[in-house]
Amino acid sequence: MLLQLLNQARRHRNDPPAPSASHELERARKELAIAWQHFDQAEPAFVDAAIHRLVAAEQAYCTLLKEQKISMSERRHSLEVV
User: Fold this and answer.
1) Residue 16 maps to a domain
2) Nearest CA to 50 among 39, 58, 40, 62?
3) Which residues lie closer than 8 Å to 71 by C-beta, 6 or more apart?
4) What are the φ/ψ torsions at residue 65 (nearest 5 degrees)?
5) Whole-model pTM?
6) Is 90 exceeded by the pLDDT of residue 24?
């Protein structure tokens, strides 16, 4: 078990640092808030574009939220197994 952990650490040691999941989720939440503001203030000619942006922002936020929940669940499960 310890050898597996060491091998994982070696593999990930050279990986570039990725933005944290909470940072990505916060960025998506802010983008969603901005999309809502654009929708609320959209001129009639731009309502369709505002709706598309809003839908895309909602989907991105929901996807990140689901991924974070799955990741937390997997981490909790792996701790229980050990």
Assistant:
1) no
2) 39
3) 21
4) -65, -45
5) 0.66
6) yes
